[in-house]
């Protein structure tokens, strides 16, 4: 009898989709940004066709768009200031709603 191993994905999905319904196409998009770790001038180098090293200075950006996984503090007294909301089994963090509306 042959044993067949059932393969599972290596990594599990650690995010949930957020759907934002709007009437028509959004006219503006203001991404949430954060400051970069390194900014200013950077020395870039690459190897040319003849094997020589080519150096070039580039300007790094000061800010970047945040990724698509957000981290918020949640729980009693943190997710929302509305006491009635805690009667619902699935509380949505107000900060997450604010960030989605802002963008």
TrEMBL record:
Protein name per UniProt: Uncharacterized protein
InterPro entries assigned: SAM-dependent_MTases_sf
Source organism per UniProt: marine sediment metagenome
